Each structure stands twice: as structure tokens, then as C-alpha cells.
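Sequence in, structure out.
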Amino acid sequence: MAELADEVLQGDVRALARAATLVENKRGEALLTKLSPHAGRALILGITGAPGAGKSTLCDQLISLLRAEGKTVGVIAVDPSSPVTGGAILGDRIRMQQHHADPGVFIRSMATRGIPGGIARATADLVTLLDAAGRDVVIIETVGVGQSEVEVARLAQVTILVTVPGSGDDVQAMKAGVLEIADVFVINKADLPGTDKLEQELRQIAGDRPLLRTVASEGQGIADVLQAARKCKREAHLRPVETAPRIDHLGIAVRSLDQALKFYEAQLGLYVAMRETVAQEKVNVAMLPLGDPRIELLEPSEPDSVIGKFIDKRGEGLHHIALKVPDLLKSVERLRAAGARILNEPHTGAGGHLYVFVHPASTGGVLLELIQA
């Protein structure tokens, strides 16, 4: 793994492809541990929107513009899963073919494999990999299923929502979801009838956020989109830096996700932003946003899992509280120096975040999870 990490850091494209395969197959944890300290420099863009809005065409034009500037690009195209093989239905050979011979562009198609939220389970790790590999810009293009795509905002620094004229009814339906997390609004195919009406509807929702028109197939308006995205990132850097921990989620152990969701979805009106299985922890996870914090429902996938043993001993209920910290490694170092009992070395968990657990004996009786912001 050390040799492969060095090759990735040196810009070896074949090494990057091998590393991406390890990450997607959930066998790249040791590799990511070595590469993570080198991440944090890329501009990470999320491209989301309904199917047929022109997301791939917009991505293609953004890549051309970035390459003309001399920037290197990584693209993660999250595709629907094949019901037969489980692989990506579209695949990177179909997308953005003109860039495949360019070593400055690395394109990876990933299958959702049934994970809702528009993001494949290994996408967060692949973002870290491409960032650490020195890609100047990482673009995440989501499946395109509408409101459930809000999960992209957790990974992207700037989320770009692509819409098309004639989707006025969809705008109303999407208000509670993806429209709220967009940083930049794009009306693509703006040469079609209905553009003025759509812009008027979006303007009421966008507020001060950028609202731009493009005709991506003709390359029109692409430079404005990139400029707006860069401005959003600059403005984010000017905001006060959070130094205090804040609540990320509450982990609740349940015997059955399906049974628990009958209450959280049907009774409370929450929605599942992500659902996945974390094999190493032997747990099935469902994430339900509560604004910025979330509820994390944890169902044991094996009887001998930590969650299974917890339920056998204490029954269903609060399993842990998770706090997001600005520098996980420094927090762990400080806690250990103070005598706190850290239960594991930092590694990747549900949703792709880096975490450690602190024993209840050090926290006043509650298992505490610390997550890298």
C-alpha cells in the first residue's frame, strides 16, 4: 500500500486507477489513511439535477474549460446500477469520450448499488483519493433522481443544480430537498421556451444565490458557471472558521431499520438521505437529516456485531453521540494526552467520514464518536 500511495502522489494514472478500484471495492482503507493528509486542496464540485437536464454535457464543457486553463480534473460519475451485474449501467466509456486520452482528466463511473441519495457508498473515499492525487478540480455528477440527491452537498464544496425549462411543477415538488442545498442554480437549454418562467420561479427560491443560464451543448454560459462556483468557494473560505465541536448525528440502535423507519418517515416526516451497509462494522445504516445534524439508525447485520451485542445487553436506544471536529488527529492526540480512552485508530465509516470512538468511561457514561469535519 505504501508503494501504491507513493505512485498515486507522483501522478501515476495507472496507479490512480488501481487505487480507485480498491476504494470502490472497500479495500482501500489503509491506502486512504496514507493519502488523506495530502488531500484538501482541490475544488470539489457537485453537479446534480433531474435526468435529462444536461448534467453530463455541462460536465464535459467544464472539463474542456478547465483543461484550457491547465487544470487537472477528476470526475466521479455516479450511475444507476445494473440489475444483473450490479455495475454502472452507463459507464465511463460512454461519458465524455473526448477526454479519455487526456492524462489530465481521470473519469470514474460508479454504480449506486441501491444506495439512495444520488451518491455511491464509496464516492466520499474516491473524492479523497482524487484530491490527494493532486487533481485541481474534482467533479461529482449524481445519478439524477431529484429530491433525494441532497447527499451530494455533504461531499461537494459547491453544489450546482442543473434545471431545464418546462420543469415548473418539479420546482414546486423539489423545494424541500435539492433546491435548498444548491449553491449555484443553472438553467440549461436556456434557448428553449419556458426559460423566463423557470427563472422567475427559481429566483424566489435562490435568493442571493447565483442563477445562471446556459446552453451547454453550444458551450454557452459555462465560464460564468465556473466563475460562480469559484466565487462560492472563496466566500466560504472568508467565513469564520469553526473551532468548537458540533453535533453531527445521534446514533440509535434498532433491531429493524424497516420497522424504525415506519416511525421516523411516516410519523415524523423525515426522509432517508443515505442507506448503506458497513461491512467492517457488521451494521446496516440509515441517515435521516435534521437540518445539519442527523439521526443515524443502526441495525445489526450480524448477531455478533457491536450493535447486535449492544441491543442484546441494553435493548434498542441511544448508542452514541457523534461530534464533528475541525482536526480529528489533533483532537485524538489531545484526548490521549489527557488520559481519555480511545477505542480505535481513525478509519473510514458510514458516509465516508473519518472517525474514532471514545469509551463511555471517559465521557460520563455515553459512547462518543468524533468525526473529521
